[in-house]
Amino acid sequence: MRDLPRDVGGRIAAMRRARRLTQTALAERAFVSLAMVKAVERGARTPSDVTLEAIAAALHTEPSNLVYEHTGTGRSIHAALPKISAILAAYDIPPGSPRRPLAELRTAVEAAVDLRVSAQYARIAEQAPHLLEDSLAHLHATPRPDTARLVVSAARSADAVAYKCGAIDLSARLIDLMRWATVRAEDPLVDATVAYVRTEVFFSARAHATGLRTLQAAIDAAPPPDGTAAAAARGALHMRAAVIAGRATDADSAREHLAEARELSRSVPEGTYLGTAFGPDSVRAHEVSLAVSLGRDHVHRALDIAREWKPDDRLPAERRSGFYIELARAQLWAGAPDAAFESLAAARQIAPLHTREHPWAKEDALTLRRLKRSEADEVTRFAQWIGAV
Q1: How far apart are CA 303 and CA 141, in angstroms?
Q2: Is 43 inside any structural domain?
Q3: Distance between alpha carbon 28 and the CA centroid of its chain, in Å?
Q4: The dihedral of CA 296, 300, 303, 309: what is its sign?
Q5: All residues at 6 or more sequence positions from 248 whose CB lies less than 8 Å from its CB, including other chains
Q6: How many domains does the chain have?
Q7: Are 173 and 221 in a shared domain?
Q8: Using CA atoms, how far apart are residues 317 and 37, in angstroms rounded to an integer?
Q9: Which of 151, 247, 265, 371 could form a disulfide with 208 if both were Cys (CB 3.0 to 4.6 A apart)?
Q10: Within a domain: 321
Q11: How many helices, marked H, and strands, marked E, lie in the chain?
């Protein structure tokens, strides 16, 4: 699992070519020498943290997508959390004039949605305080449904950073902000989206039965699925309800909600709708999540799905990496530690920071280290990288 210089160089070169950049163009954008780019790409030099972060910024990615063992990204994310907290402390007080035009802000908020589903949390963290502050300024200056929707979207991007990195109280406060803004958005699809996100609070508190009742009420209140966006919103709520029902050990409700989600996905192409991925592949990924939520007695279902299907690049990185993390737990329960380790490695390759911050991945890495102590070098390095030891 250790990052070798040639592996890092290969990832940088592959991503540069995918961005259709020459080595000269990358050097200019990263403000490093052309000789440095050439040496790093052929594996002759290991980039310093400063150089790595400059190259990653030029490639519009996170350093941990290039050097899996990089830890600076996590530090930069945690540095943004107090700024977000300070803005939340006064969200209902007009912060002054907006610093950028509404059209420019709308473009930035939409870009943050793409970063969120791609699990690029460090890049979101850099922008989240400004997006929150500017969207709130526009809402206070011009209280309209469209500016309220911007606040909801900006807060959801900030929440992704808080929730994934374990700042649960801050995440709950961001969800409260979303609910406050939703009243002003006057859009039932936004109501459904916020109900989907609010489930994080119930997962964190292990209040699964209450969360299930809340989601069922949101489904009842959602508009009929007479269009793609409405069908996706309702389907996403059913997916979420299936998983939390599984955690509540209500297997019948879980299966019913998953069946509803599967039926709705037949008329919805896989995509991201109002910030939430939904479609046939998302539902299939949730089947694995549900099987794991229901416990060890249902592990065979997760393994059966994985034998028949694996998510491809059309599914957002956050969801693909989540699939492999949950599959790893199923494989560990089934007595297949080697397969579980391969799944965790796949999750890490897809979305390193999402994997690193996932509590199940940490727990399973520690279990693997205990089980494979006699051949523990590679597993130990992974456990150290993820913070399990």
Answers
A1: 53
A2: yes
A3: 31
A4: negative
A5: 208, 209, 211, 212
A6: 3
A7: no
A8: 27
A9: 247
A10: no
A11: 20, 2
Mean per-residue pLDDT of the chain: 90
Domain boundary among 243, 271, 294: 294
Q: Of 328, 272, 343, 3, give the one whose Cα is nearest residue 117.
A: 272
Given a contact cutoff of 8 angstroms between Cβ atoms, the answer to whether 357 and 331 are in contact is no
Phi–psi pair at 175, nearest 5 degrees: -65, -35
Q: From CA 53, how far away is CA 252, in angstroms rounded?
A: 48
CATH number of the domain bearing residue 20: 1.10.260.40
pTM of the model: 0.83
Residue 101 in domain = yes
What does R_g of the chain's alpha carbons equal in angstroms? 21
Q: Which domain holds residue 253?
A: 187-294
DSSP symbol at 224: P
- pLDDT over 70, % of the chain: 96
pLDDT at 115: 87
Please check whether residue 341 lies inside any domain of the structure: no
CA dihedral 12, 17, 22, 25 (to 10 degrees): -60
Tokens matching residue 237: 């709520």
Same domain, 77 and 98: yes
